[in-house]
């Protein structure tokens, strides 16, 4: 907290505590951010709209649904979302989202409109990931499938996952001026204990909410949990101790229906200590690793100011302004005891103490302005227009040392400390406009939109970069992009509508690919910068049909995404006979195509049969395929087909509910090796798991949520966890947990 806003949370907490509830005004009479419109989804169109009115495939989760899923992290959140997954595990934890086969920084993650930091990995000792959101500080999640650059610019080329933090009005109901929520949870898959608390109040024109979450856990288990072996034969996950702390404070001042000012601050800090037993008793260039430990820390801090105005004017009915600063830091330290090197002090091999530390930090700040205007003309119009400015500053540094038992330093093959890319500043500026036009008394809706972005990457060299990368030239990178979209929704009858959308997306070249500089003389290779990279781009077509009746809701959509200039960050481009080094460089792939079908149905038989009142049947499915036009093969990040089927009983009005969910996943056949002499890559077998979710209202104010997962104790792998690994490897350590249980108690008072 000291780096970005050392006293902000404390100041806000004190201010909230001193704001005593002297007014009888409740949150029911106070507007929230989207009070003037019916809110189902906000981020899919940058305005509040029912999902049936949107020409896109969007999923939403609210706070109660998150609790009922017994979810402990972002992966659990999308457990039953075909075509969406969260990648990553092991020492460095969860990475980010994969939506329709597109992953990494190609999927934009937002928290209250603020983008999360980029992923950055370099070598075996640095993997900075994107798990910086505690889901128990969240009131709503929206998952937008497909390109959304017209609305959100770069990094939304594959989709958007938008998180919205909790507001005071989420707790202050029925005339309350003070309210609180307490949540206790446990998950056996990682032996995790959870404590979350939220405290909200209202007094006159002021509202406030403060919240905190504490989590303590061990490693997420593989299918095997009692293996004491080391090295490549190990089947259990590496032992790990984790703890994380999330804090949130939000203060709202609303003197009238026209003005609303929000100040919010939040932070998340996590620590992990790992015994990397899977590396112990293995050899690196003939050197035996006897001990290996990881000590990793991640931290994110944010301060945000938002203002909203509602009033009838010629140019706008509503205007919003959002300013933010955010700091994200990753520090990862590896300590090893190695045996097998002779030193100057001795001609015989001895124990050597080797340490590697890697740091990656990214600070971003921004200004977002938006205006909304409704008017009549040729149809009924809902116009949105605005601008964005964002600056992102990134830097990384590696350090290391090797010592003898007596503490004498030994020479290294690499220069330390070192930067593998220069300190980089990325500035993005954009203008956007979108109109939603309704004709034929609302039966036909057409939504054209366009966005213009300019961006620049400015490197700043310093001795840390120059000493480690002599002779490497760095370059400024500037470009611009125009993105367009057109969506249309037509109501065939009152409860059936069809929709079609064309959308473009793009992603600017990563700052490190533009100006990377790294040479490993011991490994015999070097990485070259490429300031001539083209931005990635996509043209996306999607068509769908939706219907809802008293007993059934269903939808089906089909899409085709055509990606150009896909950036492959590490491509072997040649061999330099002068230096005897193999050369790697980021390059653009010519063309990648992804196509697929999504579908979902919910059926309530009680609408037709009284004896089945309270029962529900739900199913959703996703199938997708891909082709790299250059190789003729699928891209490796493609997701296998998935079907989720559930049968449940009970509604929110009932004192209890239960649901049994089956998940079937097809075999992953996207892995291939272009070198016939190399070992065959492992293809994840298909599998089916069975889960049960239950809710019990213990009292008027207390709810127990239970989850029993993988009831049949099936051994299986998620495709993303074994991507690129061979059939000759022992992959047991990468398997998913066996049977596990998760539970939480939520108490409102």
Automatic annotation (TrEMBL):
PANTHER family: HEMOGLOBIN AND HEMOGLOBIN-HAPTOGLOBIN-BINDING PROTEIN 1-RELATED, TONB-DEPENDENT OUTER MEMBRANE RECEPTOR. Belongs to the TonB-dependent receptor family. Hemoglobin/haptoglobin binding protein subfamily. It is a multi-pass membrane protein. Gene3D superfamilies: TonB-dependent receptor, beta-barrel domain (2.40.170.20), TonB-dependent receptor, plug domain (2.170.130.10). Residues 219-239 have a biased composition (Polar residues). GO terms for molecular function: heme transmembrane transporter activity; siderophore uptake transmembrane transporter activity. One of its GO terms (biological process) is siderophore transmembrane transport. Residues 219-243 are annotated as: Disordered. This is TonB-dependent hemoglobin/transferrin/lactoferrin family receptor. Residues 52-160 form the TonB-dependent receptor plug domain. A motif (TonB box) lies at residues 39-45. SUPFAM superfamilies: Porins. The lineage of its organism: Bacteria, Pseudomonadati, Pseudomonadota, Gammaproteobacteria, Alteromonadales. Its main location: membrane. It is found in: Cell outer membrane. CDD domains: ligand_gated_channel (cd01347). InterPro entries: Beta-barrel_TonB, Beta-barrel_TonB_sf, Plug_dom, Plug_dom_sf, TonB-dep_rcpt-like, TonB_box_CS, TonB_haem/Hb_rcpt, TonB_Hb/transfer/lactofer_rcpt. GO terms for cellular component: cell outer membrane. Keywords: Cell outer membrane, Membrane, Receptor, Signal, TonB box, Transmembrane, Transmembrane beta strand, Transport. Residues 1-26 form the signal peptide. Residues 282-711 form the TonB-dependent receptor-like beta-barrel domain. A motif (TonB C-terminal box) lies at residues 732-749. It comes from Alteromonas sediminis.
């Amino acid at each position: 907290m000291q780096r970005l806003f050392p006293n902000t949370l404390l100041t806000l907490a004190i201010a909230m505590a001193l704001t005593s509830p002297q007014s009888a005004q409740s949150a029911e009479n106070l507007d929230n951010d989207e009070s003037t419109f019916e809110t189902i989804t906000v981020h899919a169109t940058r305005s509040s709209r029912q999902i049936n009115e949107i020409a896109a495939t969007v999923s939403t989760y609210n706070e109660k649904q998150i609790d009922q899923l017994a979810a402990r992290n972002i992966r659990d959140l999308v457990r039953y979302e075909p075509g969406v997954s969260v990648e990553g595990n092991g020492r460095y934890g969860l990475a980010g989202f994969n939506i329709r086969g597109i992953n990494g920084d190609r999927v934009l993650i937002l928290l209250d409109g603020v983008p999360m930091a980029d992923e950055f990995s370099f070598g075996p000792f640095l993997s900075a990931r994107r798990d910086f959101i505690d889901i128990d500080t969240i009131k709503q999640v929206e998952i937008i499938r497909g390109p959304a650059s017209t609305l959100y610019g770069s990094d939304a080329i594959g989709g958007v996952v938008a998180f919205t933090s909790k507001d005071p009005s989420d707790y202050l109901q029925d005339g309350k001026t003070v309210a609180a929520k307490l949540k206790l949870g446990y998950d056996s898959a990682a032996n995790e204990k959870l404590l979350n608390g939220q405290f909200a109040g209202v007094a006159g024109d002021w509202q406030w909410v403060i919240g905190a979450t504490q989590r303590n856990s061990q490693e997420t288990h593989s299918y095997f949990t009692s293996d004491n072996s080391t090295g490549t034969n190990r089947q259990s996950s590496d032992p790990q101790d984790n703890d994380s702390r999330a804090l949130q404070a939000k203060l709202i001042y609303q003197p009238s229906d026209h003005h609303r000012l929000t100040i919010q601050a939040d932070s998340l800090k996590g620590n992990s200590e790992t015994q990397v037993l899977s590396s112990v008793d293995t050899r690196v260039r003939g050197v035996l690793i006897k001990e290996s430990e990881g000590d990793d820390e991640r931290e994110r801090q944010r301060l945000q100011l938002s203002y909203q105005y509602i009033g009838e004017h010629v140019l706008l009915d509503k205007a919003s302004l959002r300013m933010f600063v955010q700091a994200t830091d990753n520090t990862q330290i590896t300590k090893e005891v190695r045996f097998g090197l002779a030193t100057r002090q001795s001609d015989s091999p001895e124990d050597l103490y080797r340490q590697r530390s890697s740091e990656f930090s990214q600070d971003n700040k921004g200004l977002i302005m938006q205006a909304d205007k409704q008017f009549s003309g040729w149809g009924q119009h809902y116009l949105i227009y605005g601008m964005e400015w964002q600056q992102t500053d990134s830097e990384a540094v590696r350090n290391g040392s090797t010592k003898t038992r007596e503490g004498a330093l030994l020479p290294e093959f690499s220069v330390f400390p070192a930067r593998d890319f220069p300190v980089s500043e990325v500035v993005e500026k954009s203008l956007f406009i979108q109109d939603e036009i309704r004709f034929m008394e609302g039966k036909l809706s057409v939504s054209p939109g366009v966005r213009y972005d300019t961006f620049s990457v400015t490197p700043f060299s310093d001795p840390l970069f120059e000493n480690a990368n002599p002779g490497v030239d760095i370059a400024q990178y500037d470009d611009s992009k125009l993105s367009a979209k057109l969506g249309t929704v037509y109501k065939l009858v009152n409860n059936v509508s069809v929709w079609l959308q064309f959308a473009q997306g793009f992603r600017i070249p990563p700052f490190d690919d533009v100006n990377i500089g790294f040479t490993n003389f011991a490994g015999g290779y070097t990485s070259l910068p490429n300031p001539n990279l083209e931005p990635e781009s996509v043209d996306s077509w999607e068509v769908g049909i939706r219907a809802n009746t008293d007993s059934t809701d269903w939808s089906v959509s089909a899409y085709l995404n055509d990606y150009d200039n896909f950036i492959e960050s590490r491509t072997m481009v040649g061999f330099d006979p002068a230096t005897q080094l193999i050369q790697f460089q980021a390059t653009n792939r010519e063309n990648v195509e992804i196509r697929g079908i999504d579908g979902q149905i919910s059926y309530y038989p009680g609408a037709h049969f009284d004896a089945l009142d309270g029962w529900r049947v739900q199913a959703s499915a996703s199938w997708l395929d891909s082709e790299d036009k250059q190789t003729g093969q699928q891209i490796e990040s493609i997701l296998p087909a998935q079907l989720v089927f559930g049968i449940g009983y009970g509604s929110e009005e009932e004192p209890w509910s239960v649901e049994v969910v089956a998940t079937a996943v097809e075999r992953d056949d996207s892995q291939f090796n272009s070198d016939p002499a190399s070992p065959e890559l492992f293809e994840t077998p298909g599998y089916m798991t069975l889960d049960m979710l239950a809710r019990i209202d213990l009292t008027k104010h207390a709810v127990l949520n239970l989850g029993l997962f993988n009831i049949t104790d099936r051994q299986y792998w998620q495709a993303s966890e074994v991507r690129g690994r061979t059939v000759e490897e022992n992959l047991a350590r990468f398997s998913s947990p066996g049977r596990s249980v998760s539970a939480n108690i939520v108490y409102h008072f």
